[in-house]
Amino acid sequence: MDETEIPEDHPRYASLVTRHRIEAGVERGITSKQGLIAQGRGEAFDYLLGERTLPSADGAARAAAATLLLAERPVISVNGNVAALAPGETVELADAVDADLEVNLFNHTDERVRRIADHLRDHGAGEVKGLAGDGEIPGLDHARGVVDADGIEAADVVVVPLEDGDRAAALDAMGKTEVVIDLNPGSRSPRTADVPIIDNLLRAVPNVTAHARDLADATPAELEAIVDGFDADAALDAAEATIRDGSFADADDA
Ligand code: PTJ
């Protein structure tokens, strides 16, 4: 079934569209087969969170927007799942905060990097980094540590949606400020992040863009106040409490 054939009134419409996009990503050589498994894990957490943006995740998205607007060299890291699920939205976020886009893969192949870069360009991206591979994240084996010297290696702020825990820790050790988007509040990467956004990247990416547009005229002092007022541990705790309380069943109250 084509994405357009999924009836919009189907109770699991958003989930079916998401699955279809990941499946299509695998078929096009953009998403890895492991991406299907990651998607399944994500869906389970999304269900437990009520498939909505928690107020705490919205606060994190605003802090992420402020962090990106204050950054000197922000980079958004794109993997096979991000490229399949939200290519246009990711390009829009990069435009809104003047960030570079870099393809950075957990299961690296040059072919997949090229395909993802082309896919982002088809969705309006200008330059896409990740093809040079002339930099490194120290402390990781070669394939996992390959980045561009003028991209992630030189960045001050990195957005890493769906990042693996080891790489999140290695980026942290390099002194990067990290914005992580991940539906699992117990995962190591959001726990390492300066700004963990516990939300589906399909909702989180456009939400950060909306906050960035809203904050476009804010002064550096106003942006810094938003960053300083954000409490990463409280945001993680709020998501975890939602899952533990089973309050996802009351999603309409959010
Ligand atoms: O394209 P590559 O080679 O870079 O590989 C990308 C994946 C995602 C396959 C790779 O990084 C991987 O194996 O990731 P993990 O270790 O399975 O972690 C994926 C995390 O993302 C899990 O914590 C999921 O809950 C979460 N996740 C999955 N889908 C979404 C999500 N978080 C937010 N939005 C989603 N749509």
UniProtKB/TrEMBL annotation:
Top EC class, one word:
ligase
The biological pathway it contributes to is: Cofactor biosynthesis; coenzyme A biosynthesis
On whether Transferase is a keyword of this UniProt record, the answer is: no
| GO BP term, pick one | coenzyme A biosynthetic process
Q: Which Gene3D superfamilies does UniProt cross-reference here?
A: Phosphopantoate/pantothenate synthetase (3.40.50.12640)
Q: Which InterPro entries match?
A: PPS/PS (IPR002855), PPS/PS_sf (IPR038138)
Entry annotated with the keyword Nucleotide-binding: yes
Query: Which chemical reaction does it catalyze?
Result: (R)-4-phosphopantoate + beta-alanine + ATP = (R)-4'-phosphopantothenate + AMP + diphosphate + H(+)
From the record, give the transmembrane residue ranges.
none
Keywords attached to this Swiss-Prot or TrEMBL record, sorted alphabetically, are: ATP-binding, Coenzyme A biosynthesis, Ligase, Nucleotide-binding
Q: Which GO MF terms does the UniProt record name?
A: acid-amino acid ligase activity; ATP binding
Q: Which family does the record claim for this protein?
A: Belongs to the archaeal phosphopantothenate synthetase family.
Among PANTHER family, the record links this protein to: 4-PHOSPHOPANTOATE--BETA-ALANINE LIGASE
Q: How does it assemble?
A: Homodimer.
Q: Which NCBIfam families match?
A: PRK13761.1 (NF010324)
Tell me the function of this protein: Catalyzes the condensation of (R)-4-phosphopantoate and beta-alanine to 4'-phosphopantothenate in the CoA biosynthesis pathway.
HAMAP family this protein is in? PPS (MF_02224)
Name the record gives this protein: 4-phosphopantoate--beta-alanine ligase
The species this protein belongs to is Halorubrum hochstenium ATCC 700873
